[in-house]
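Narrative of activities, Objective 1.

The group set out to show that a structural description can be obtained from nothing but a protein's sequence at a throughput compatible with the screening campaign. Below is one input-output pair from the validation batch, recorded exactly as produced.
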Amino acid sequence: MIHFLQSLVLSRFYVFVLVFLFITKPIHSENLGKVSSKPNAISEEKKEEEEEISIEITHEITNDFVWRGQSFSGDYISRRDNLPYKSFAEAYTYVPVARISHSNGFFFELEANIALKGRGDRDSDQRIQAYPGGNAIDINRWTGQFLANPNDRFNYFDPANAVYSENCNLSSPNDPFVNPCAINPTQIKTYAERNGLARTDGLFTTFAYEMDTKRFGTFTVGSWWYFKKDRSAKNTWNEYFIWWELPWLKQSLNPTIQSFKQTSANTQAGYSSQYSSFSLGHHFLKEKEISIEWTSSIGYVWVNNPDSQKSGLNDITSTIKFLWNQYFLSFNHAHRPEIDLYDNDKIYFLNSESNFPVSNLSERDGMIVDPSKLYGASNELLNQAIRQLDPSELVQVWAKNQLQSQMIPRNLFWIGIGMSQTF
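Output recorded for this entry:
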């Protein structure tokens, strides 16, 4: 059934592309016999085609890539660099956009997000370990036990508590994940986890048709695919959408209703199955050399993810853009009214192999694990103190959660600077 649905979606995609190419390059059969007799016919036809197709390219650099109220670059770099989640991140991202439009309403668009900072992997857990993401090894205990009993068959590494145990199966291969046995001393060192921001690079591919009815407003229907390399694995999903630019107050506020339906059923990402928004905007001094553009939108999610099953106001996003000819400077703000929609491990996930020292005890308290309080010598000492104070596992989990959590930022701010070109 899954293969059938995939083939059905792909078939529609190919048909859409063929129709787009066919319409954008029409064959003027009535002019075929006149080309030789009229030399100007070819140049006039080319001029007409150039007027029908337009290309717009935008280059923008921002301090964070925020989409639908979710910080993609900022949150990721906080986990990589062991920093608390912040409202204003320093995760510089290059966002190029290329759009090819035809006068008949069809358009094709590519939008990418490319991290400019922290692209390489980093040792985030700061542990001496036998493999990336492994538990910390007590060097004194390991060497002391081994030197005291070098031939003891129980000198094996137990990843549950970083000590030796008899849980190694000697008949199976020595694998650090499946069957962790005796460790090669040369493998005991610090390792970089797979957490570089190069894994967050993504690409939107959009195919759509815009129809201006004048009396009833402008309708846009289409679909987009988002390809990204995230959480150490490639991740792709798809949405269909319909937009309606209302005919009322179009020149002054341009009210627009948008609705998006996800078809890829991506349960591993923090994206809703359906997202709807209402936006307003105005372009001041549009015909002047220097102008100002303002937009605001309110977004609503119907189901934030298949596990949490929450609905509500997702974000209120506003942008003020100052334009000077082809250059622009934008100030952006996203307010997240219902923070519970973000309080889950799918949005605030761990982008390395290391296990979470703290669990998210509640998805209703607006708190999440603070990356700056997970690893390092001081945090390890704190964990040891908690384990020694109370033997109860429940009390230990509660204490860690209280000491190593932070409030989820309710507001996000980012600045963009760039330029636009039209061909």
